[in-house]
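Notebook p. 47: complex prediction with zinc ion.
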Amino acid sequence: MNSYYWQIIILTIIFVHLGINLWLEILNIKSLKTKIPPFLQDIFSAEKYKQSQSYTKELTILNLIEKIIITSLLIIAIKLNLFNYLNKISISISSNYLFQGTIFFFLLFICIELISFPFELIQNFYLENKYGFNKMSFKIFLQDKIKTYILSFLLGGILLITIFFIFKNFGKLAWLYAFLGVSIFMFIIQYLAPKIILPLFNKFIPISDSSLKQKIHNLAQKIGYKIQDIYIMDGSKRTTKANAFLTGFGKYKKIALFDNLVNTLSHQEIIAVLAHELAHFKLKHIFKQIILSLANLAIFLITLQLFLHQPNISKALGIEYPSIHANLLAFSLIFTPLSFILGIMENFLSRKFEKQADMFALKFVKSQDLISALKKLAQNNLSNLTPHPIYVFFFYSHPPLTKRIKYLQQNSSSI
Ligand SMILES: [Zn+2]
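Predicted complex, structure tokens below:
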């Protein structure tokens, strides 16, 4: 197929993708209700409820504006051959294909950052401020940015160079070697994240509340795990939103609780949240999700192999000299519909797992504790309480709060 047809295909994908996103976001805004659902009246004040609705609306509008601007600039870049310009700069800097490719993506990253940076500022320092979430000073924001840039250049650079090298040198089985290389890389990152990467951004202090600590150990023992360490994380340095997460391999788990979570929820509620988290491990959800993401990676690399040696796909973006990196960029646009469908499947499975974890947790904790924990977290995070069902189908990794409360009430635990 010649580059003209490829360009039509790529532009169609970009337009349809934007169209679907706009339609879903508008659908979601329209489904916001001004009246508070009766079963939430005990925990949401009318004021808080109104806030959650207008926060959702304003955040959606901001994201939509960003999406429209980025898509328009992408089309302009294709039509005015701006990617060719970036490619020429990278060729003029280095004669080595590995560095040319890395520099090309590095320049592209800078361009994308320049466009999205103002939106990040507006979200953090206007919107999140207005609704009282943001606790982050401008200094922390900048420090975070710099650390993230260094990490992305380092890790992204290693990943790109590996992919370029393998696809240039390993012939028909390149996808398989790339699959092995990228999987090993991901596992190393997963392993290092709690040890090296997360402490770059937050302080982790061993829990001092001995009564809560004992309750967590008791719960873990009942479910069949040993908790190695329990940390309190200073999430409140950036946001008022609350969360908890578990890491670790095998029988030994580490738990990190946001300080906001400990300050907002009662002990029983925290235990209920952790029972849900441990259920994910017990039901092998984490393992299944890793298998699924490896399958996604394999699909991506096999299709990439099919497209990588087609000179006309990078010409469709206006790039004169075909190369692996230029084709990788074109391919990532062509892959959008498939990744969109894979995302829907992943979310569908994730919602199923969330329900299973909720049900499993009920064997160990009272349903009313889990319900009130979920309500408090939703109130605290100003979650959208009335998302449109179609929007949920496409984008939600968790069932909406109303649904979760309904099935938790129906399956009230006997504890
Ligand atoms: Zn979960």
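Notes: The two ends are 65 Å apart (CA to CA). The chain has a mean pLDDT of 90.
Next step: compare against the earlier run before touching the bench.
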